[in-house]
Amino acid sequence: MAGTFKVACVQLTADREFAPNIDKIVRMAQRAADEGASMIALPENCTMIEPVQAAALRKAVSEAEHPALPAFAEVAREAGVWILIGSLSIKRDDGRIANRSMLMNGLGEIVARYDKIHLFDVQLANGETYRESDYVAPGDKAVLAPTPWGCLGMTVCYDLRFPNLYRDLAHAGASFLAIPSAFTRTTGNAHWHTLLRARAIETGCYVIAAAQWGRHAEGRETFGHSLVVDPWGEVIADGEAGENLVLATIDPAQVDTARQRLPSLSHDREYTVEDLTQGVRAAE
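User: That's the sequence. What structure does it adopt?
Assistant: Structure tokens below.
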């Protein structure tokens, strides 16, 4: 495992068209590279937040046609940095969208792809309703990607609420967990910091979570607070509010240190659930 390196999370307020978002990301990524970042993490839906379902389907393009990929590849090649593309809306042959995260190496090559498994279908107490599954096809594979510093477990946003995914990635060899997100302001205020710290503590992994922030089209609001959390659960960088870069130094050796201090990954056991309520339910 390599030595320490610097990661940068790009926190932005994406609008509903590709071009301005791509231009903004390129500028911020170049600045992150100038400040010494070896890996740059982008948030979910980094090139487009389009709240209108029909418009989102109309604007989505195939991976081969997506204008962000050559732009990001040029930054990666020129600076020699790895880029974690939080997610793009990729048009599938069946007419639906894949919410796809991609990992690009320092040569500008895509070395890993992950399609978001868990889709955000909720109605919040404040009246906000989200039905991602109406137009997004879920992925069916967890992805562990090699990097120069150790293995990266790739996930996206709502996946955060499913802890078994992260434990499985840690058991498979992950030292770092990517959780690019566009958390709503409501759910972010309630759960964001707690869930990210919990995933780090449960797995002994670093968590790298680039996030959207601010007010988007149609009044949608995202929480921001891009976080980097160490394997002991300590927040070592917080983007708070605003469009900004969040930089942190990662020490891969801390993964082993945390797991030696609290070796819960080695204590998993198989078990069954003894359901003592069956007779009670039958009697009712």
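The chain has one domain: 5-283.
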